[in-house]
Amino acid sequence: MSTHESSSVEAAVAAGRPADLTPVVLDASCLESTAPSHLRDLKAGLAEEGYLPAELTVEARFSDDAPLAVQSESDRLREYVRAAAFLGVGR
Question: Could you list the residue range(s) of the whole structural domain that residue 42 is in?
Answer without folding.
Answer: 20-87
